[in-house]
Specification:
This protein has 547 residues and is α/β, with parallel strands linked by helices. It has 20 helices and 19 strands. Strand 5, helix 6 and strand 6 form a beta-alpha-beta unit. Helix 3 packs parallel to helix 4. It is globular and about 70 Å long. The structure holds thiamine diphosphate and magnesium ion (MG).
Length: 547
């Protein structure tokens, strides 16, 4: 007998690597929640659907597929923002929404949660996913599930599956086997593109690899490393690609972000006569808010969507085939390049324990705190700018929504990241403003045995915005963040104002592994990290020069 549609969906999600489903139920999806309870997938109830969306996004980045399951419109539309983020930053999240049954829709009644038409929510998700479906017909439901899930995995972008509540118990067609889709490159075009790329790279005096987000999403870190090590071509990463290469690797140059980043990295990358840019997207953040000077004529840009070498475009070449093809090609091995090394972070010494903390000293101390088991999860704000200078030990250990830049990502994302890989303990960096949006998801962390260390950078409001343009709208209510454990009945909190207090709190937090730790760090209102300072100064200088 064929499985029910709900069970088939669950089986496919599980087969594709998902072990958890984030969300909040409602009457339109309760039946499917019952099917989930009886399945190998574990339900993670969050405090709010937006938190579930961010958690699923982080889970997908770490594990390859994330799932969020919510009720119709009131839940679904709250997940629209994290889904938009997953789309913009290439994260394969499956959004499952319950919905009124097909039979209930006859005569177009006004059922609760309906906005305008029955397909209003579906239309919204059509804009922010790569594939979407309403499972309205048992005859086609299995194929539809296959089609949509394949798109998530193929394009590393979110998809939407709507489950009318009367469909989940119905059975699909018998003897259905999921379609395995293997897409391969056009062999002739692949050969021609590799020939041109190899010739360019071999002829180049100073080739550089600039690796971005898709290397991580398509799991090509090892291939990238093999390419670099075979040829001794140095590797820089974008902010979105930060940590695709272990940052202690001898061929690692640093984060490239135009004028926003370290000057030596900028100069090295921009003076390259052959830039290989795997998985690179020309977004303003990667381009250092358009301060980047990258010449397309000297670039080899390859993504899951297209391939261009100089001004030549090649159709039908897959990113993986191209990168692996390069590794197998006759690329010449060069002498080890002399790289402009970042000055090693000065060992953190506590000269004066009573000195008031600054953002600069905070990040110096945090740099010394990282281990190979840490995953850094940064929110938007000065915590992200400061985090760019942290030195991440192994691959895949830095998570941030640096491009879409929605505040409130970090705390729920830490829950998703830790459930996806329980061997890593998250270090969450989040501003006071962003924490007020989703920090309550620490309750979800506690409930599910997660133990992130959360550093709240409390600078009394929207600090980043104060540096751009200040006004009373950048103030936030003063919370006693460190007392959240009292409310939640678990976790530990510290309020730190001095270097000595920070030092002690971090060491205690390292030892306190049984629940979450929340370290509220008081900073001066207009304090800023060295990275944000660099950005402000460089942009200021450029603006003056342009006058
Ligand atoms: C959801 C959302 N709302 C508004 C913004 C605009 N925004 C960008 S940074 C910022 C201030 C962040 O404040 P906080 O979290 O305290 O960090 P800080 O800048 O003080 O370091 C705001 C409001 C945003 N990026 N995302
Ligand atoms: Mg702030």
């Amino acid at each position: 007998m064929a499985p029910t549609i709900g069970d088939y969906l669950i089986a496919r999600l599980h087969a594709l690597g998902a072990g958890h489903v984030f969300g909040i139920p409602g009457d339109y999806v309760l039946g499917f929640y019952d099917q989930l309870v009886a399945s190998p997938l574990k339900i993670i109830n969050t405090c709010d659907e937006q938190g579930a969306g961010f958690a699923a996004d982080a889970y997908a980045r770490v594990r390859g597929l994330g799932v969020v399951c919510v009720t119709y419109c009131v839940g679904g539309l709250k997940v629209a923002n994290p889904t938009a983020e997953a789309f913009a930053e290439k994260s394969p999240v499956v959004v499952i929404s319950g919905a009124p049954g097909i039979k209930e829709r006859l005569k177009d009644p006004l059922l609760h949660h309906k906005v305008r038409e029955f397909d209003t929510q579906k239309k919204v998700f059509d804009q922010i996913t790569v594939a979407s479906t309403v499972l309205s017909d048992p005859q086609t439901a299995f194929q539809e599930i296959d089609r949509v899930l394949h798109a998530a995995v193929r394009f590393k972008r979110p998809v939407y599956i709507e489950l009318p509540r009367d469909i989940i118990w119905q059975r699909g067609i018998p003897h259905h086997t999921p379609r395995e889709v293997h897409e391969s490159s056009d062999a002739v075009v692949l050969r021609a593109s590799l020939a041109e790329a190899v010739a360019r790279i071999n002829a180049a005096r100073k080739p550089v690899i600039l690796a971005d987000v898709e290397v991580h999403r398509f799991g090509l870190q090892r291939d990238l490393l093999a390419l670099a090590e075979r040829t001794n071509i140095p590797v820089a990463a974008t902010i979105l690609g930060k940590s695709v290469v272990a940052e202690h690797h001898p061929l690692y140059l640093g984060v490239y972000e135009g004028a926003m980043g370290r000057e030596e990295v900028r100069r090295y990358v921009e003076s390259s006569d052959c830039l290989l840019m795997p998985g690179f997207f020309m977004m303003d953040i990667n381009l250092g808010i358009y301060t980047a000077r990258l010449d397309p004529a000297r670039s080899i840009c390859v993504t899951s969507e297209n391939l261009s070498i100089g001004h030549h475009n090649y159709e039908g070449v897959r990113l993986k085939d191209f990168l692996r093809g390069l590794v197998r090609s006759k690329l010449r091995c060069r002498a080890k390049p002399k790289l402009p090394r970042a000055k090693p972070a000065p060992p953190f010494t506590l000269a004066d324990a009573t000195r008031a903390l600054t953002s600069q000293r905070l990040f110096q101390r945090l740099n010394a705190f990282l281990t190979v088991d840490t995953v850094v999860v940064a929110d938007i704000g000065d915590c992200l700018f400061g985090a760019v200078d942290l030195s991440i030990h192994r691959g895949t250990e830095f998570l941030a929504a640096a491009y879409y830049a929605s505040m409130g990502f970090a705390v729920p994302a830490a829950v998703g990241a830790q459930l996806a890989n329980p061997r890593r303990r998250p270090l969450v960096l989040v501003g006071d403003g962003a924490f007020q949006m989703t920090g309550v998801e620490l309750a979800t962390a506690a409930r599910n045995g997660c133990n992130p260390i959360v550093v709240v950078l409390n600078n009394d409001g929207f600090g980043t915005e104060r540096h751009i343009h200040d006004g009373p709208y950048n103030d936030v209510a003063p919370w006693r963040f460190h007392r959240l454990p009292e409310l939640l009945g678990t976790g530990r909190g510290w309020l730190v104002k001095t270097e000595g207090e920070l030092d002690a709190a971090l060491e205690e937090a390292r030892r306190h592994t049984q629940s979450f730790c929340l370290i509220e760090v008081r900073l001066a209102r207009l304090d800023r990290s060295p990275a944000l300072d660099r950005l402000a100064k460089r942009l200021g200088a450029r603006l003056r020069a342009a006058k």
